[in-house]
Amino acid sequence: MAEGKQFPETNPREPSEPNSGKPQEARPVITRRDFLVRSNAGAVAVGVMTGAGFAASLAQSPVAPPKAATPAPASVPVTTRRVALNIDGKKYEVNVDVRESLWETMNYQLGLSNCNLGCDRAQCGACTVLVDGKAVNGCTLLTARQGRGQKILTVAGIANGPGPQGLHPLQRAFWLEGGFQCGICTRGFVMSAYALLQTNKNPTTAQIKEALAGNICRCGEYTKILSAVKKAAAELRGEKVSYTAPLLTAAAAQPSPAPTAGAVSKQFEFVTALGTIEQFDELSLELKQRPGIIGVSGSERTITPVWDPTRLDETGVRRILAETGHPVR
């Protein structure tokens, strides 16, 4: 067995290098305990000095008063949206609640009475408008979802011009055929029929009923409404249409001139009462075209013409009424 290697004993205080002939200084031995004690003492001294310097700096520099808090800007509710609407070709920018219906926006914010509110449950169709050509209920359509370039069309946007002659054929037909009574549902019926006639100008009765199935008339004027849609469709096809009531032209709609001095008027009773007030209106327009007749008023049972005595007498007035097919007594 080989002998273990022998190492000479050395004194830790003596240098390991060979003696150079110069006296060697003894190196102090620092234990772990000595190192920790001295390190802690140094840290305490540094902390004391730093704290003293910080306290001195506080004493020398005055403390600045706190700045007044800047008020936070008014926050916009997270349920609000700003939308740009296109209604009947006009642009509107408005802040709306995300739960707000188109009908509410038009009536309460924009002041537009272009559609009526009936049930507020999408059941009656009185609030019908067109969005990109499709008939929808304005009471359940959220405005916040309409500011994306959609074109909204209401009954106020389909007329071709001012006055009775500028009405759209549908508007004119509903008026002259009496396709309304209280008027709550009329706007919705007109818009639903308008959507139909944009794609079908010669609809059958069944197709008209299908298109108007979402609209309700509480007055029960369905027969006249169907007649109005059919006649409007015929007019759009270029056909000549005869309506139940006459169309009041701008000239005829003007109030009758005041009777001249010496004008004579008398009330007569029809031998056979007229069926409707619309028939009286038609007769009144015809009489005003006769020479000497200044004005006409009355009802289905009586008529009171006003005439110029220098051009007509009572006999002449009776003769004119008889010629129109409505003799009086």
Any overview of this molecule?
By secondary structure, this protein is of the alpha+beta class. Among the domains are: 78-155, Beta-grasp domain (Ubiquitin-like (UB roll)); 158-244, Orthogonal Bundle (DNA polymerase, domain 1), CATH 1.10.150.120; 264-323, 2-Layer Sandwich (Alpha-Beta Plaits). The chain has helices at 32-60, 102-109, 169-176, 186-199, 205-211, 222-236, 277-288, 314-323, and strands at 80-87, 90-97, 128-131, 134-137, 151-153, 264-265, 268-269, 293-298, 302-307. The strands form 2 sheets. A 5-stranded mixed sheet has the order 2-1-5-3-4, covered by helices on one side. Strands 6, 7, 8 and 9 form a 4-stranded antiparallel sheet that branches. A hairpin with a 2-residue loop joins strand 3 (128-131) and strand 4 (134-137). Helix 3 (169-176) packs antiparallel against helix 6 (222-236).
Ends: how far apart? 164 Å
**Rounded mean pLDDT score:** 81
CATH class of the domain at 158-244: Mainly Alpha
Which runs of at least 5 residues are low in confidence (pLDDT < 50)? 12-16, 249-254
Outline, from the CA principal axes?
Answer: elongated
> Strand tally, please?
9
Number of helices: 8
Can you describe this structure in just a few lines?
By secondary structure, the chain is an alpha+beta fold.
What keywords describe this structure?
329 residues; alpha+beta; Ubiquitin-like (UB roll); DNA polymerase, domain 1; Alpha-Beta Plaits; five-stranded mixed beta sheet; four-stranded antiparallel beta sheet; elongated
How is the secondary structure organized here?
Blueprint: H1 32-60, E1 80-87, E2 90-97, H2 102-109, E3 128-131, E4 134-137, E5 151-153, H3 169-176, H4 186-199, H5 205-211, H6 222-236, E6 264-265, E7 268-269, H7 277-288, E8 293-298, E9 302-307, H8 314-323
Parallel strand pairs: 1-5
Antiparallel strand pairs: 1-2, 3-4, 3-5, 6-9, 7-9, 8-9
Helix pairs in contact: 3-6
